[in-house]
Amino acid sequence: RAMSSITVQPPKCLQKTFVAPRRHMFGPGPSNVPPRILAAGAEPIIGHMHPEMLEIMSDIKSGIQYAFQTQNNMTIAVSGTGHTAMECAIFNAVEPGEGVLTAVNGIWGERAAEMALAKHKPVLFFLTHGESSTGVVHPLDGIGDICHKHNCLFLVDCVASMGGAPLHMDKQGIDILYSGSQKVLNAPPGTAPISFSERACQKVFNRKTKPVSFFLDMTWLANYWGCDGKPARIYHHTAPVSAFYSLRESLAILAEQGLENSWRRHKEVAEYFHEGLENMGLKLFVKDKNARLPTVTTIVAPPGYDWKEITSYIMKNHNLEISGGLGPSVGQVLRVGLMGGNSSKASVDMVLEALRDALRYCHKSKV
Ligand code: PMP
Comparing C-alpha atoms, which of 335, 331, 278, 274 is closest to residue 303? Predict the structure, then answer.
């Protein structure tokens, strides 16, 4: 027998057929992808520069403009997750030596913002609209004006809030806004909407230095998405074709349902959920009702219990994902995300039943 050149053998694990478990994805994301969006993603692959693909990208652009409530021409989806869009925003808008101001937590007082902007002269002010780690939705009105008065761009993360809480990019003077595909949009993770205002474009396209990332360089991406007015599209990277099909379908569903209906449903379902939790004797982590993010609810970790036992119990016995805290909220909260198609009273009833069951059967310390 001829000697094989192969030194690493075909892995046995790959001989097994893979079937993904069916789960209720009620954590802070990803959320369940409905059959219609899964089916769109299963369509045959075409070339990333074929005219039909460019049309899909144009549809995606229109869908994002609607979801963001913006007329910005510079509106695209980056190939990557929410973090990719975050890096795209920062890498393109900031040059070496420039300052960035970030609102870390709590509700940002207008006066404090004004003082910090005057003192530190940042070129960019970053705020998360829907803080999925704490379950807080930050008010946005008025902040854009303050930023512009201080010659600062207003950057907002709406990964966890877009489609689930009112947001008007143009009216609220937001200069750069980005989101993700895997939350309210119910598309698979891996594409991220982002939009730049005229003011942001002025800065981004007049840089003295090149952005640190070639992949996220908006000069390239603007051309690739047909936003730079040039007749020819130049190959930049191979778009995740199937992911764009899915994203297009998810934006189509949002457009069909209507943004305001979606905002209203998320609010109503969240309120119904919060009432159910309080009736069970559980406490909400965010005390101020108006500051509660409708998409991701934070529940004070039930005293006497190990939160990990609760989430594991619910996963094992109810096939349902809820999660613990993140960053500063680890150990303090349970987090439940009800986003897009998952935002329904039926889902709430399922979560409440699972929690009731877990509190009955998980170990509770007597102290
Ligand atoms: N920002 C917020 C508010 C988020 O909730 C998340 C995801 N949990 C991200 C950014 C990061 O997105 P991704 O995990 O898709 O990179």
Answer: 331
Query: What residues have CB less than 8 Å from 346, skipping those under 6 apart?
Result: none
78 CA distance to ligand 1 middle (Å):
14
What is the distance between the alpha carbons of residues 367 and 124, in angstroms, rounded to a whole number? Answer: 48
Backbone dihedral angles phi then psi of residue 270, each to the nearest 5 degrees = -65, -40
Spell out which residues line ligand 1, taking CB within 6 angstroms: 28-29, 81-83, 128, 130, 132, 157, 159-160, 180, 189
Burial of 97 (0-12, 13-18, 19+ CB in 10 A): exposed
Could you give the residue range(s) of every CATH 3.90.1150.10 domain in the chain?
24-28+259-361
Distance of alpha carbon 38 from alpha carbon 61, whole angstroms: 20
Q: Whose CA is nearest to atom 6 of ligand 1?
A: 159
Architecture of the domain made up of 24-28+259-361: Alpha-Beta Complex (3.90)
CATH topology of domain 35-257: Aspartate Aminotransferase; domain 2 (3.40.640)
Please identify which residue in the block is written with the tokens 């998952």: 342
User: Can you give the pLDDT of all 367 residues of the chain as single tens digits?
Assistant: 678 999 999 999 999 999 999 999 999 999 999 999 999 999 999 999 999 999 999 999 999 999 999 999 999 999 999 999 999 999 999 999 999 998 875 444 556 667 778 888 999 999 999 999 999 999 999 999 999 999 999 999 999 999 999 999 999 999 999 999 999 999 999 999 999 999 999 999 999 999 999 999 999 999 999 999 999 999 999 999 999 999 999 999 999 999 999 999 999 999 999 999 999 999 999 999 999 999 999 999 999 999 999 999 999 999 999 999 998 889 999 999 999 999 999 999 999 999 999 999 999 997 6
Cβ neighbours of residue 21 under 8 Å, at least 6 residues apart? 319
Task: Give residue 160 CA to ligand 1 midpoint distance, Å.
Answer: 7
pTM of the model: 0.96
* In the chain, ranges of CATH 3.40.640.10 domains: 35-257
Is position 335 annotated in a ligand binding site?
Answer: yes
How remote is the CA of residue 157 from the centroid of ligand 1, in Å? Answer: 9
